Amino acid sequence: MALPLFHTLTYQVPEPLAHEAGVGCPVAVEVGRRRVLGHLLGPAAEAPPKGLKSVQAVLDPATRFGPELVPLIRWLASYYHYPIGEVVRQIIPGGEHTGGGRRERWVTATPEEGAPDRPAPSLARLGARSLRLLQFLREEGPRPVRELEQLVPKCQGLLKTLEKRGLIIMETRSGPVGGGEEEPGPPSEAAMTLAPEQEEAVAALAEGIAARSFLPYLLHGVTASGKTEVYLRAAAATLAQERQVLVLLPEIALTHPVAREFGARFGRRVSLLHSGLSDVQRLAQWRRLA
Prior knowledge:
single chain; about 290 residues; alpha+beta; 3-stranded antiparallel β-sheet; 6 strands; globular
């Protein structure tokens, strides 16, 4: 909890909340006579035999972080002599916000191999537009209908057909409040023809990426010389290895043009965090990373 305490506090989780409470969940607890926000860090090594207070409420069953981040949180608190609850507040967005906003329809592709007790649904007599939707969902994961409308306009009828065949599952979810930037559409392929200098830079970066070891590079070029396209190609090569890409910018003024370029190339795989976002917007972007 965001209090000036250099140690954690132990609470018991009531049985009705046990199925929602997990590491990283924001919870409401009582400290003295105050009700405050805290986050669950895991089971206690030791618990007092009696006198434990109970967690009052799980504010959001969708966890903000997993067990893998807890050692980092504890290390930061120890190394910087900073209250552990304040560490969580600084690096984990959202506070008490759940990120719930509008409710919208989402679509998920069913497994290609089908269920154990029945064969995979047939793709026979599906049109090109239906197959494009299905392939996109299988490659990119669950997506809202509004995004699929950008990929294949007027696709509602196609989705109903795919659902009847058992190829997709449609459900209503609470969508997050907007993340502070325009929603990126479906990803696009690189169309630019590289200049010789760009090709040389991309080849060098691709070699380093394939080596899977740390190699620093300095890319020199004046404004509008094509450096961003080199970064995009390097990011694509990294993602092709099922790895992640972190892009750091020196000033907030650059976020919009750079985010627009990356969003156009990689679609909703791009998440954007900067100081100009509200808590709810930061939470929406944070959840894209999950």
